[in-house]
Amino acid sequence: MSTKKFIIQKIIQLILALLFVTAITFILMRLSPIDAAEAYARRSFRVSTEEIEIIREQMGLKKPLVIQYTNWLKDALRLDFGKSLVNNRDVFTEIVGAGKITGLIVLLSTVIQAVGALIIGGITYLTRHNLIGKALRFLAIAAISIPAFYLATAFIDIAAVKWGLIGVAGNTGLMRYFPAALCLAVGGIAFFGQLIEKAIDQAMNEDSILYARCRGLSERYIVVRYAVPQAVISIIPTFMQMMGMCMAGSAIVENIFSLPGLGYLIIESLIDRDLPIIFATVLYLAFALVLFNILADIVQRILLKEQKEGMVKF
Amino acid sequence: MKKLKFVIPILVVVFCSLGFMLAPNNPYAMDAAHKFASFSADYPFGTDQYGRCEFSRILYGGQVTLGIVVVGAAIVLLIGTVIGLFLGRMSTGKSLLFNSLLDAVTAIPPLAYLIIFVGIWGNSIPTMLVALTVSLILRMIKLSKTQTEIELGKAYVLCAISSGASKMRILFVHVLPNMIRSLIHFLCLSCAEMIMSISAFSFIGLNLGDDVIDWGSMLQESRTVYSVRSSLLYFPILFIFICTLAFNLIARQMEGGEENA
Q1: What are the CB-based long-range contacts (under 8 Å, 24+) for A214-222?
Q2: Do residue B111 and residue A245 have CB atoms under 8 angstroms apart?
Q3: Which of A229, A280, B96, B223 counts the most CB atoms within 10 A of its CB?
Q4: What is the arithmetic mean of pLDDT over B221-234?
């Protein structure tokens, strides 16, 4: 596939994904048993039927769905997502603010996952023949099976409330997001640890490693110097996809730690039926997810190309 | 030994999803006289803050949580695989648009779909089932389609065609058995993720309905009485953990078996 065709395909993919997700949101909203205008009226204590009708007219909910959708799309292209129905704030600024927090959590969590997975993967490989390696492998599967939301509550119950180590509300700066990022990372560390171990194992069977052995280098040196870099490169695409997953996963952890990130915003607005925020957050989330996916594809393509030309150097 | 590793997780899942038939007490029956009862023959796991039998509630909760996952997974496996098979067969005109659409739709993780569905329709068992099926079936179709395309390029298909096998026979008798392992592998990993997601939603307050017992809402309720009786918190989490672990282990067996075969 030529580079040009590749780029076009990725752009089409991005646009299609955004259209699909926003369209689904509109359709689901229409099919929803809870009426947005009614919910809005209830909140401002105006509950007579005529008043609900007037609000419905104002919100443009009486127009056909397709027209509502295209109107929204037109505004969205100008980054105008309207104002929140709850507190009348500009949706775009709300989302950018929340996006920063989620971004920070995801970024922090990614760093923890990368470092943790490397260490765990390396140790598992070096100890693969003895009991420690076996135990680590089982621990990895067990760690994947523990829900992040439980880790988060356990963390609050034990570390914050019982030991009084970290005030959940009081911290500022990065430390405020660290617990959430850590809880989010545990599953990832275990998962990527396993992947790295497998990738190291694969890399150790290559000819270049045989040559290194012939040079009389020690096994541990070979693993660290030659096999690990190769293994890391091979899992980079999967790792980048995971960053997208983390964004969705952080929705739940954010709620437990009460961090005002995207996930918190989306669940809050869903409970309040705050249409403009719902549509915009869904769009933002989808955009981020697809972008990470596409980045992963691009990286994979570059790696494949370099491998073909025999240019991967460490 | 090999078989045992496979059978035990399946038994665990079956027990947790059908265990409600063995429940010793009515999970809804409140009994103010027996609040926070400790373990006994009548109440194997004790009782909660309303005097309800914890063991029966766990079993009924398993029926809901695992029921959604297992039913959803079965629908996804049946429909998704068949659609994928046919799409893979027809993909001679590999249209850029169609592939991009499938790629685009599957680029969004199942959890994001769950958030959208649950948020807009409110959480309930049917919503959860629909959301889970929709989010997984798209991925299943993609996986099954790609696998079919790979398998159709292999030599044994050529042999089958030359010995006069019909299109249907090639797809269902020759191709399907060769890819079923990776499909189930994917499905088991998804099931594990789904158990956690479903519990997570009820846990953060979007519960499945007022009278529905599930592990997530049990966790949430028991958290309020954590200081009085912490074991109430540990039972639901233990069962969530065991079931997720079971699915992960099945997935691992599916993956490992492929190499040994």
Answers
A1: A220/A126
A2: yes
A3: A280
A4: 76
